[in-house]
UniProtKB/TrEMBL annotation:
It comes from Heracleum sosnowskyi. This is MLP-like protein 34-like. CDD domains: Bet_v1-like. Pfam families: Bet_v_1. It comes from the Eukaryota.
């Protein structure tokens, strides 16, 4: 079992892929209204929403536990509809030396596909792979989709 890992999940969404990308790229502070049971807040700590190098404080719940993390926006690619965050403070860093979160929206086909990937390095081999985070982001996807579907 290695210390460096990568998890990937891909799912189709019925909502507009451009809107989905925009939420993570420039409007993450709106997420708590779309998925209030999962995301409780997204505050700008430094920089500007939608700008690489900005720092964001995320408040969320997972498995009944309240979590707070600080992420740095590592990359935003408007053409590829991709956003990358690096966790720099918080609960995850108790188990992982490095944790990168990448969300990519593919709008080139008939369906819009969202791909989440997590690149990480465990602090030691006893740490399990963070599969619960894949379940978490899939719940967020579903909530965003429900929020944007016509009523």
């Amino acid at each position: 079992m290695g210390l460096i890992g990568k998890l990937i999940c891909q799912t189709s969404i019925k909502t507009d892929g451009d809107v989905f990308h925009e939420i993570f790229g420039t409007r993450p502070h709106h997420l708590h209204t779309m998925t209030p049971e999962n995301i409780h807040g997204c505050d700008l700590h430094e920089g500007e929403f939608g700008k690489v190098g900005s720092f964001i404080i995320w408040k969320y719940s997972m498995d009944g536990k309240q979590m707070v993390e600080k992420h740095r926006v590592e990359a935003i690619d408007e053409e590829q509809k991709q956003v990358t965050y690096k966790v720099i403070e918080g609960e995850l860093l108790k188990s992982f030396k490095i944790f990168l979160i990448n969300v990519h929206v593919d709008t080139s086909g008939v369906d819009n596909l969202v791909t989440w990937s997590f690149d990480y390095e465990k602090v030691d081999e006893s740490i399990k792979d963070p599969t619960e985070y894949l379940d978490f982001v899939l719940r967020i996807n579903k909530d965003i989709e429900t929020h944007h579907l016509p009523k």
